[in-house]
């Protein structure tokens, strides 16, 4: 699935304005910090329930006079909450839901826009509208108890901006936000990232962000202190429209509503052409599913399980589903597109229309952090391709400036999901800058004394080390896949402090508190998953210390890793484990982490295979166990068995999801039409397996960043061809293979300045030939089992196996 990289911001017909303080003909290098944070004069309600009332989004404007030939014009802008900026009535840039969500009291990212070609000589107008985002959330009591207004830094939406105009004559004009800006309230009457948006076209102010607009009744902006976070230029992909989806059907319902099927589940908004009379209200509701009678099922996307009166607190809706409203003004035909919310949906229910909209008048606008997607996996089995597509779609749907667990009902950046799927994301997308931002989110979120679950921090502290350890493990993934040592060097002292905290919380080494293998179909003790995450961190920190030439800590972490491995071995291998336990996760974890002596590994593999047979050859593992079992079985020679399990359409499994109509992955193996998200990345570890074992592309831990890497494809019975492309720091890696009668052809591409350790599966009876694109022949080293081994430098190669 490839993203649209074209700029689609022209789809939005509505723009808003910003104004600034002028400092003419100066040459000083003035920074964004010279500008002021500004907002409205009106305070927020003091009573939480009143936040559910109408609170229109403010529109800010400032006229800008360009007095000479323009050499360059650069706008720097950010907000606490969301902003949308315009120049002379046209939207500035392709970004949506900007800035990225952070702890605004600690760190705020700003964007820069080149307006050189857009700024006119003479009078111009900058415009900005503000949305609430995560800076002014509603007091929804998620799960009946979790109010984000308690945990997040709060305030009125506010923004800061600076426009620097440099002229050909060497002078410049600097325009900063201050109290000379004017504001009024616009048509967005309510906006919330969970519940949606209400837009009243009768409150539109025509031409408000053009230079000749009269502002006699507009108020002066109020300078405020801002949220307090350090301003930093954004270095990671912004949220943008990455795909435009066309509906596949519109169904008229008996109650006068219309059900729009977008064909797939995704995260984003929509653009629709509406017809009506002044005062008519059109209501949009969204869901991942429909009921058997064709009506909307919004329940899997309801925020925080608020599904009956009283759960969400005073003022909250009885059922907190996703909903937008459009109220007509004088124009009887109008395009509508929400600005300050985002939904996860396949189905859109529309009520209030006199007649059905046309298919051509509706577009689904997929939103996600616009990560590059140069990588690809395909094969000749439709089910595997469908699983791959659903996984990619799920991953993108959960990239809204944080990697979320589900993009509708929670939207939080949980560390457990990072631990389970970071490598899978990396195999599909360029995640380096996104994950750097993620690590800084953890820097800002973590406390000195407890483990937290999410970054940005939302008040959750029950999942334990398997979640917060993502701070360490994500750094390791950046090292392994991108050769990023800079992040380790930058954060090494904090890494050491984190390990000291882990030692204080778990002084004996055994982890006894926290969430374990989430959604495993059998119990898994946290002592297993928690302690092994601690073990992984100790091993990673041993490597980090080596990079830092810190011999003392290198030895200390080596000893800690040995101690923790011994604890896990003694607790879960050296003696009988009491009580009911998911033996798939148990043995897979032990094998994945190599804590069983080599002489006993065959016994562990046999135990794992027996656990599979006991489950009718299906996986019953959870968030971590699934990643572990895919890898453990494969590296111990049971790739065919994994293939047979993945390529299966019965419950539990990915094929069962696809057969039940899933276009994104579920949070549970068992189908849920009410409680659990239908768009959750944690079982997406399967895509990592496609790249690592069917295509065979794997990083070598001794050569981070694919300077030297493993290329070891597997050709299972039942699959005739597979192809993968992976963009490494050194260039593109291609691994393709195909069965042709009794022969097999492997075509591989290795980046220049890289070396691949290539193992081609073969029998002793098969002949092996290898030639590069220039006709040069390479002779393999034959292994005892018949496999052909090569060490190949950069180039393109064709390897043929024949009888």
How far apart the termini lie comes to 37 Å
Shape: globular
Helix tally? 15
> How much strand?
25-35%
Mean pLDDT: 95
The number of E-state strands comes to 37
Major sheet description? 10 strands, mixed
Class derived from helix and strand content: alpha+beta
Uncertain stretches of 5 or more adjacent residues: 1-29
Helix content: 10-25%
3D structure, described in words:
- The protein is of the alpha+beta class and 803 residues long.
- It has 15 helices and 37 strands.
- A hairpin with a 5-residue loop joins strand 23 and strand 24.
- It is globular and about 85 Å long.
- Mean pLDDT is 95; it is low at 1-29.
SSE topology sketch:
Blueprint: E1 21-24, E2 37-39, E3 58-66, E4 70-80, E5 82-87, E6 90-91, E7 107-114, E8 122-131, E9 141-142, E10 146-147, H1 148-151, E11 158-167, E12 172-176, E13 182-185, E14 188-192, E15 196-200, E16 219-220, E17 222-224, E18 230-233, E19 239-245, E20 249-252, E21 258-275, E22 281-287, E23 289-290, E24 296-297, E25 323-327, E26 333-336, E27 343-351, E28 362-369, E29 376-379, H2 382-397, H3 415-428, H4 432-445, H5 465-468, H6 470-482, H7 486-505, H8 526-547, H9 551-572, H10 583-592, H11 598-614, H12 625-635, H13 639-646, H14 654-659, H15 685-694, E30 697-699, E31 708-711, E32 721-728, E33 731-740, E34 743-760, E35 767-772, E36 781-782, E37 788-802
Parallel strand pairs: 7-18, 15-25, 31-34
Antiparallel strand pairs: 1-12, 2-17, 3-8, 3-13, 4-7, 4-11, 5-6, 5-8, 9-10, 11-12, 13-16, 14-15, 19-28, 20-21, 21-26, 21-27, 21-28, 22-25, 22-27, 23-24, 29-32, 30-31, 32-33, 33-34, 34-37, 35-37, 36-37
């Amino acid at each position: 699935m490839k993203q649209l990289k074209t700029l689609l911001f022209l789809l939005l017909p509505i723009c808003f304005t910003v104004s600034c303080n002028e400092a003419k003909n100066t040459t000083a290098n003035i920074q964004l910090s010279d500008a002021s944070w500004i907002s409205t004069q009106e305070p927020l309600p003091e009573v939480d329930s009143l936040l559910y009332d109408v609170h229109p989004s403010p529109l800010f404007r400032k006229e800008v006079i360009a007095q000479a030939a323009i050499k360059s014009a650069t706008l720097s802008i950010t907000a606490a909450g969301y902003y949308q900026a315009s120049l002379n009535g046209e939207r500035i840039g392709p970004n949506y839901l900007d800035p990225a969500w952070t702890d605004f009291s600690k760190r705020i990212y700003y964007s820069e826009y080149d307006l050189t070609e857009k700024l006119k000589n003479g009078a111009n107008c900058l415009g900005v509208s503000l949305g609430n985002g995560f800076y002014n959330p509603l007091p929804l009591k998620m799960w009946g108890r979790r109010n984000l207004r308690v945990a997040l830094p709060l305030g009125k939406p506010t923004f800061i901006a600076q426009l620097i105009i440099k002229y050909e004559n060497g002078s410049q004009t600097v325009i900063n936000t201050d109290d000379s800006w004017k504001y009024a309230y616009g048509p967005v009457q309510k906006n919330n990232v969970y519940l949606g948006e209400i837009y009243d076209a009768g409150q539109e102010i025509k031409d408000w962000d053009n230079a000749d607009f009269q502002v006699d009744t507009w108020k002066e902006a109020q300078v405020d202190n801002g949220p307090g976070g350090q301003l930093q230029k954004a270095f990671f992909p912004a949220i943008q429209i990455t795909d435009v989806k066309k509906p596949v059907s519109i169904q008229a319902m008996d109650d006068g509503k219309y059900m729009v099927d977008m064909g797939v589940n995704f995260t984003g908004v929509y653009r629709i052409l509406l017809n009506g009379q002044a005062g008519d209200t059109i209501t949009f509701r969204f869901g991942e599913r429909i009921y058997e009678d064709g009506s909307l099922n919004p329940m899997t996307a309801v925020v925080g399980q608020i599904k009956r009166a009283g759960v969400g607190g005073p003022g909250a809706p009885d059922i907190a589903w996703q909903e937008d409203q459009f109220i007509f003004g004088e124009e009887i035909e109008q395009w509508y597109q929400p600005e300050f919310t985002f939904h996860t949906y396949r189905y859109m229910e529309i009520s209030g229309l006199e007649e059905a909209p046309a298919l051509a008048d509706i577009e689904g606008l997929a939103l996600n952090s616009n990560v590059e997607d140069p990588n690809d996996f395909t094969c000749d089995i439709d089910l595997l391709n469908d699983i791959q597509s659903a996984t990619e779609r799920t991953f993108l749907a959960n990239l809204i400036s944080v990697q979320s667990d589900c993009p509708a009902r929670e939207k939080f950046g949980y560390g457990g999901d990072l631990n389970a799927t970071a490598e899978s994301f990396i195999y599909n997308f360029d995640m380096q800058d996104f994950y750097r931002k993620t690590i800084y989110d953890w820097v800002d979120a973590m406390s000195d004394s407890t483990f937290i679950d999410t970054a940005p921090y939302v008040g959750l502290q029950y999942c334990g080390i398997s979640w917060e350890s993502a701070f360490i493990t994500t750094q390791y993934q950046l090292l392994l896949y991108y050769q990023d040592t800079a992040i380790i060097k930058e954060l090494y002292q904090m890494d050491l402090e984190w390990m000291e905290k882990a030692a204080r919380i778990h002084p004996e080494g055994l982890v006894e508190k926290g969430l374990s293998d989430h959604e495993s179909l059998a119990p898994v003790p946290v002592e297993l998953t928690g302690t092994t995450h601690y073990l992984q961190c100790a091993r990673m920190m041993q490597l980090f210390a080596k990079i830092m030439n810190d011999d003392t800590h290198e030895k200390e972490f080596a000893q800690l890793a040995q101690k923790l491995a011994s604890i896990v071995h003694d607790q879960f291998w050296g003696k009988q484990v009491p009580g009911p336990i998911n033996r798939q996760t148990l043995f897979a974890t032990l094998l994945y982490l190599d804590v069983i002596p080599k002489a006993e590994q065959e016994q562990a593999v046999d135990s794992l295979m027996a656990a599979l047979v006991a489950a009718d050859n299906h996986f019953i593992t959870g968030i971590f166990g699934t990643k572990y079992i895919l890898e453990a079985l494969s590296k111990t020679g049971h790739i065919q068995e994994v293939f047979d399990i993945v390529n299966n359409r019965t419950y539990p499994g990915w094929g069962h999801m696809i057969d039940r109509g899933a276009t994104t992955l579920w949070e549970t193996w068992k189908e849920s039409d009410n409680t659990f998200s239908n768009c959750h990345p944690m079982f997406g570890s399967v895509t990592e397996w496609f790249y690592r074992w069917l295509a065979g592309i794997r990083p070598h831990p001794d050569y981070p960043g694919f300077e030297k890497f493993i290329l070891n494809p597997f050709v299972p019975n039942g699959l005739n061809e597979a192809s993968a492309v992976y963009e490494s720091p050194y260039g593109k890696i291609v691994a393709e293979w195909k069965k042709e009668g009794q022969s097999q052809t492997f075509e591989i591409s290795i980046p220049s300045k890289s070396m691949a350790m290539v193992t081609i599966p073969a029998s002793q009876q098969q002949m092996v030939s290898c030639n590069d694109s220039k006709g040069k022949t390479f002779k393999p080293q034959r292994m005892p089992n018949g496999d052909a081994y090569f060490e190949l430098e950069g180039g393109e190669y064709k390897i043929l196996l024949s009888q």
